[in-house]
Amino acid sequence: MNKTDVEIRVNMRENTNQKSDQYGHFYPYIDRMSTLDTRGLCKHVANHNSIYGREVIEGVVLQITSCTLELLSMGVAVQLTGFGTFYPTLQSRYEGVVSMKEAEELGVDTVVEGIHVRFLPDSTDLDNITSKKFKERCALKYHMLDEVTVTEVDGKKKYTHVYKPISEVANAPEPEPPTP
Prior knowledge:
This protein has 180 residues and is of the alpha+beta class. Helix content is 29%, strand content 33%. The chain has helices at 38-46, 54-73, 100-106, 108-111, 131-137, 166-170, and strands at residues 7-14, 26-30, 78-80, 84-92, 112-121, 139-153, 156-165. It has a four-stranded mixed beta sheet. Strands 3-4-5 form a three-stranded antiparallel beta sheet. Strand 3 and strand 4 form a beta hairpin. Helix 1 crosses helix 2 (54-73).
């Protein structure tokens, strides 16, 4: 698959944690403009020369979602070929248990704190969408520098974001050092 004509916009953010070894370094993140809901995804699929309308596609997707959740709740992993595998994992008590006797006394509902649904992208040669292979499909473009300032308001941290085009920031002249 060739790179798409649509670009993924990449913003940059500076690490402002003075305790970090990476303080002052800049890191990329995807500028997610929105989230498409089920109806929007089904409409998008229908617009790709599908013989089925949005309503039919949405019905199938809703049934797949329902059945996938049912199977996951039974401990069955679900692989969507070409996309990846959804599978359940457990979150146990932070300190664990020291013996099977303790586990039995506490009960499984206490020992298991939560159940996570994980996703493992398809990594077959034909449909590899693991991180580096998926990047080859995408067209990346720098977009904004995200300058974050943290202030405290009523005892709570407030984050303020100021966005500046990276092209302007990267080409700006370096500030002059202060004169003595």
